[in-house]
């Protein structure tokens, strides 16, 4: 069982001064370049990195803690920190929150490099009824957790400042709820780098291994298609998506032998199969999105960053329908600067796209109130 993402919060990270907002089954964020849409997307990636004990490495790879921290003014009583959080639900009255706080090294004797991000605090809180329970509570090097016997115990005596407590807990029998939160976040999949250049992974054959979920770079696209065609033996949704986007075209998926491969035929040349190396950037990218959204098994959460890149405008409406259908199987989060795509998703999916804006250098969402709710939701 996975948990559904219900809320996201971030403060002190790049242009995210302080923001908290709800998330639905299908969430679409649209806005101009430079307003901070990608920072919202990246905050989720960092939260997944925290669950995988890679948070400090991810921040370091982005230029370090000084480069990613809010560059505006801090209040006199504030300690500069990055705080990222998510709230989960599972269809009943219970919920889980995870929050991680990262800052600079303060003590010279601290076991960390000078510009290395340090995890200051972490919490996993279980909500049921009126009294929340801190399943995980980390302050500096001190970490306490509630085990399967409902006892509060101290753990991770040798935890380094750059390591996350959640990412270090791996015993599902002793820490069942913590394992559920961590496993849910590790199952998230992010698609923002489906390359289409001549050396792109999607243009290469795949290993002939049954593949239920597309890799983030699309390297196993051929294997994903082959799994649907020759393991599930069902290409109805694939054929439907092809016909919707490329009327009269066919996706050719031969049984894998030494490799898995695919090709396409088009109505202008019905007897000529075009290999991935010959397909246009837009056609290949659309096929990659099909692989991400129609795979044998979708992850608990799929995030798309500007999926419209390289696509012909005529493909935006079919893409919207593809995304809406995928949202029936999993939770979808999408950021885009294409108002046309956002409006098409709204029309087919019955959702309200959220417009991301900048105000005084701070990323915000139109209609979001300081309570963390959108205006129309707060009035219900």
Binned, the helix content reads 25-40%
**Average of the residue pLDDT scores:** 93
Oligomer: single chain
Q: What's the structural domain tally?
A: 2
The backbone outline, from C-alpha atoms, is: globular
- How many β-strand runs? 17
Spatial gap, N to C terminus:
30 Å
Using the CA coordinates, give the radius of gyration.
22 Å
How many distinct helices? Answer: 11
Along the chain, the helix and strand elements come as: EEEHHHEEEEEEHHEHHEEEHEHEHEEH
The main pleated sheet reads as: 8 strands, antiparallel
Explain the overall architecture.
With 380 residues, the chain is α+β, with helices and mostly antiparallel strands. The protein is globular, with a radius of gyration of 22 Å. The protein folds into two domains: 4-23 and 36-188 and 356-378, no CATH class; 192-303 and 311-330, Rossmann fold, CATH 3.40.50. Helix 1 runs antiparallel to helix 2 (55-61) and helix 1 packs across helix 5 (176-186). The protein contains eleven helices and 17 strands. The longest helix has 15 residues, at 37-51. It has helices spanning 37-51, 55-61, 65-68, 165-168, 176-186, 221-231, 236-245, 281-294, 316-326, 339-349, 375-378; strands at residues 4-13, 16-22, 26-30, 82-89, 95-103, 118-127, 133-139, 142-146, 152-155, 189-191, 250-252, 263-266, 269-274, 301-305, 331-336, 354-359, 362-365. Strand 6 (118-127) and strand 7 form a beta hairpin. It has an eight-stranded antiparallel sheet with strand order 2-1-4-5-6-7-8-9, with helices on one face. Strands 10-14-15-3-16-17 form a six-stranded mixed sheet, sandwiched between helices. Helix content is 27%, strand content 27%.
């Amino acid at each position: 069982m996975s948990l559904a993402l219900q809320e996201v919060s971030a403060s002190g990270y790049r242009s995210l001064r302080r923001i908290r907002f709800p998330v639905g089954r299908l969430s679409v964020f649209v806005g101009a370049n430079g307003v901070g849409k990608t920072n919202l997307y990246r905050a989720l990636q960092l939260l997944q990195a925290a669950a995988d004990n890679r948070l400090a490495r991810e921040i370091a790879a982005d230029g370090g803690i000084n480069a990613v921290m809010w560059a505006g003014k801090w209040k006199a009583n504030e300690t500069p920190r990055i705080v990222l959080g998510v709230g989960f639900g599972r269809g009943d009255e219970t919920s889980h929150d995870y929050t991680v706080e990262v800052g600079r090294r303060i003590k010279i004797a601290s076991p960390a490099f000078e510009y290395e991000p340090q995890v200051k605090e972490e919490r996993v809180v279980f909500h049921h009824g009126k009294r929340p329970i801190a399943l995980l509570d980390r302050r500096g090097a001190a970490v306490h957790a509630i085990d399967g016997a409902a006892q509060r115990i101290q753990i991770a005596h040798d935890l380094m400042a750059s390591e996350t407590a959640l990412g270090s807990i791996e015993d599902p029998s002793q820490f069942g709820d913590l394992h559920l939160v961590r496993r849910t976040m590790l199952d998230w999949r992010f698609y923002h780098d489906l390359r289409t250049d001549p050396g792109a992974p999607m243009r290469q054959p795949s290993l002939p291994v049954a593949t239920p979920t597309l890799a983030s770079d699309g390297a196993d696209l051929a294997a994903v298609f082959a799994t649907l065609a020759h393991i599930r033996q069902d290409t109805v949704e694939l054929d439907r998506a092809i016909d919707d986007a490329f009327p009269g075209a066919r996706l050719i998926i031969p049984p894998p032998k030494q490799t898995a491969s695919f090709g396409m035929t088009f109505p202008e040349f019905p007897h000529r199969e075009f290999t991935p190396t010959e397909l246009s950037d837009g056609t290949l990218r659309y096929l990659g999105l099909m692989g991400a959204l129609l795979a044998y098994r979708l992850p608990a959460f799929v995030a798309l960053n500007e999926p419209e890149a390289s696509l012909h405008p005529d493909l935006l409406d079919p893409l919207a329908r593809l995304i809406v259908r995928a949202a029936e199987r999993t939770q979808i989060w999408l950021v885009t600067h294409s108002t046309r795509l956002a409006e098409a998703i709204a029309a087919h999916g019955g959702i309200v796209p959220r417009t991301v804006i900048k105000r005084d250098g701070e990323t915000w969402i139109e209609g979001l109130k300081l309570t963390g709710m959108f205006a129309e939701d707060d009035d219900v």
